[in-house]
Amino acid sequence: MGSTLNQKKLWEAALAELEIALSRANFTTWFKNTSILEINGENIVIGVPNTFAQEWLQNKYHQDILSILTKLYPQVTNIQYKVTTTADKSKQIEKKLESVLVEQTIEKSEIPVTQDIADTDLNPSYIFDTFVVGSSNRLAYAAAQAVVKKLGDRSYNPLYIYGGVGLGKTHLLQAVGNEIKKKQPKKVVIYSSCEKFASEFVEALQSKKLETFKKKYRNADVLLIDDIQFLSRKEGTQEEFFHTFNTLYQTNRQIIMTSDTKPQSIPQLAPRLSSRFGSGMVVDIKSPDFETRQAILQHKLEERGFNLDEKSIDYIAKSVQNNVRELEGIVNKIIAHCELYNIQPNFKLIETITNQLTVDNRNVHISADDISKTIAEYYNVALVDLMGKRRHKELVYPRQILMYLLRREMGYSYPKIGRLVGGKDHTTVIHGVEKIEKKIQKDEILQRDIALIKEQLYSF
Ligand code: ADP
Ligand code: MG
What we know:
By secondary structure, the protein is an alpha/beta fold. It is about 60% helix and about 10% strand. The chain has 21 helices and eight strands. Helix 14 packs across helix 15 (about 345-365) and helix 19 packs across helix 20. The protein starts with 6 loop residues before the first helix and ends with a helix. The model is unreliable at about 95-110 (pLDDT under 50). It binds adenosine-5'-diphosphate and magnesium ion. Magnesium ion binds near residues 169 and 170.
């Protein structure tokens, strides 16, 4: 690499190695938002987002980092870890947006007339151009494009897209939003996950800011709601969503939803809602067939300026069948590896990485029981107490963390968590989960606790 050495490339390559060496939970916890700030002869300065990560990298991962960097940049003898604020910029923006939403200020609901693309929560890389079309998603793609041309048209309103995990629903949904903002910047586009809609609603109720909440959503020209299946069992939120839906629909504003299942198969969804969800156009996205998987791989490689022979592409396309996100993961790993060792890819390497990643994914199987036991142990409380009804002060916090992890790691619904943990009401669970979600943004001790708990969990 020598004189052409580039800080960003070097760190990406090192991260790729670290990712393989460490457990996934550890890797994401400690290496997120890190970068190389400076390379100066034998010194390398690594930027970290907070003092906590700084200590942790220094004390726990320094040897790993040093040995990996030495392979890539043999001169290095000294590594420093420095807290930077810019490394964390995207997080700061996220926080800012979040605080705006939480405050639910009147001003916010009045802004939309000049809504900026940055205020839409849309990911700019989820656009039509980067979406590969094949027989599995052609109809959904066509419907999404038609909506852009005929906003609010009754034959495509609402548009309901459903399909399995990692098949491109979110990508397509946001592509509509991005395209509309590009062509008709004045339109107010609101993208939200169903969960976020629900939690904003609960928050608005609690803080008596319901009017602001209603105004925000009923102001949309285009409402994009991701993963609507999570509306299941949330009665109050269903009611509110029903009214929002009707208000928008009656004034010909466009609604698009995604889900993992058909409207009528969402458990415990009020019939009046499922019938409305299915009243416009319903399309599904299926798992990509072999040819589409090849095309997606080609496209992802091209995007990165990388090339693989046919045999390699076929091998990957054969190994990963049901999830585009996994295909992407393999491409990223291959590129990182080749850049790291400055080598051309060969079939053996492709085979190894593909097998490694597909096996890895199957290994990560933890249960709700594992989570409760680990938390009881970590906080030194009896498992029966943790899972029970007693309201002792020292039990409340571990219980909330338990709820949070059941939600995040297992994807359990709030009522299910409530039933598991002391027969709590689902609103208590939402409150607990949200409390931890908020606290984790700022509280470094909690970040560490969660990381350690996860470390335990995934090394079972
Ligand atoms: P879902 O919401 O269905 O779980 P996502 O939209 O999050 O899936 O897609 C997972 C990843 O795969 C994203 O990075 C997305 O860009 C990519 N992806 C999915 N389908 C396609 C496609 N047809 N063409 C290109 N990328 C795709
Ligand atoms: Mg999604």
